[in-house]
Amino acid sequence: MEYRNLGRSGLKVSTLCLGTMTFGEADEKSFMYQVGADEATSHAILSRALERGVNFIDTADVYGQDGLSERVIGRWFAASGRRDDVVLATKFRFRMGDGPNGTGAARLRIMRAAEASLRRLQTDRLDLYQIHMQDLDTPEEEILRALDDLVRQGKVLYTGASNYAAYHLTESLMTSDRLGLNRFVSFQPQYSLVVRDIEREHVPLCTRHGVGIIPWSPLASGFLTGKYQRGQAPPEGGRLTKWKERYARFDNERNWRILDAVTVIAKERGVDEAAVSLAWVLGKPGVTSAIFGARTVEQLDENLKAAELTLSSDEMRKLDEASAYEVGYPYEFIKGVQGRW
Q: Is the pTM value of this prediction over 0.85?
């Protein structure tokens, strides 16, 4: 397992981060109903991940229902005594309670959310605390000051953002620098061979300002694992079998072309498609660690093969070409003049 600094911080995390959205069996009220792993399996996955060198796990208060994923992890910490072996990341922002202050990123909400996550996770600190999406109703200064106070109290060690527009992330970093507040060390966006939009603005922004990129859904909800076939119905048991609208968005010629290219390289290398897809993300500029999920120990072991795989420049080029997308104006205009944007 390789370890990289998270952004410009001194914190070292494994290049593969265990995502825990599927931990715990949610009921029919949750969007994760019937796609999760039971608690015993979740604990086995956590133990196996640490055994294989993964030291970075990511969760959120909304995963499962009523903090289910965090509670599952907290009980594993209590049973295993492995809290200090883990860089623990969680997130806040989306609705977790009734009323106008049950969602969002106001100072009141942040302080309540942090305390609730600490209780569920049975820990005294959150190693990386991330805002799950920008909040247009709350001044960024208010958000940053609340997070800075949590850092000064020792309840949070590092802060990060997820699902921010590039302009908003830029304003956040500038505000932190101007006011002398703790700045985000990481950015967690959707990024995969299928979804490359962040390359327009976010990747240049993060690489220039030393913000580590932690992609979520690098396997495109499982589409890039090779279990889906062109012209065939999704196999039973996969998330995309339940999330039919999302699968319909993936079912197009560009994405099947991407999967064909991934499959060719996977066969040449003797690995599965998931390893190739993850290795591509880890080979892109600014990426610190890629978040992947697993519902079984066997699935975990398959995905961890990506840690041992480095794609050649020619393989990266072939995948870049297969997944090429229209970058639009002004990027095409700039590239036409200078050869890059």
A: yes
Give the separation between CA 172 and CA 189, rounded to whole angstroms: 16
Q: Which residues have a Cβ under 8 Å from the Cβ of 273 and sit 6 or more positions away? A: 224, 225, 226, 259, 262, 263, 266
Contact criterion met (CB below 8 Å) for 214 and 187: yes
- Could you give the angle at which helices 253-269 and 313-322 cross, rounded to 10 degrees? 160
Tokens of 285: 């500029």
153 and 110 Cβ atoms separated by less than 8 Å: no
Q: What is the pLDDT of residues 128-137, one digit of tens each?
A: 999 999 999 9
Residue 266 lies in a domain: no
Task: Provide the domain limits for residue 130.
Answer: 3-228+272-310
- Over residues 279-318, the pLDDT tens digits come to 999 999 999 999 999 999 999 999 999 999 999 999 999 9
Contact 65, 30 (CB under 8 A): yes
Residue 91 pairs in a beta bridge with: 130
* Number of structural domains in the chain: 1
Q: Which residues, 6 or more positions from 141, have their beta carbon under 8 angstroms from its beta carbon?
A: 175, 179
Residues identified as active-site: 63
In a domain, 78, yes or no: yes
* Lookup result for tokens 């099947």: 256
* Residue 129 in domain: yes
- Asked, for residue 173, whether it belongs to a domain, the answer is yes
Burial tier of 140 (Cβ tally within 10 Å: 0-12, 13-18, 19+):
buried
What lies within 8 Å, CB to CB, of 336 at 6+ separation is none
Q: What single letter denotes the amino acid at residue 159?
A: T
Could you tell me the CATH number of the domain that includes residue 173?
Answer: 3.20.20.100
> Which residue, 285, 230, 238, is CA-closest to 259?
230
- pLDDT tens, residue by residue, 59-99: 999 998 889 999 999 999 999 999 999 999 999 999 999 99
The first and second tokens of residue 241, run together, are 């079998």
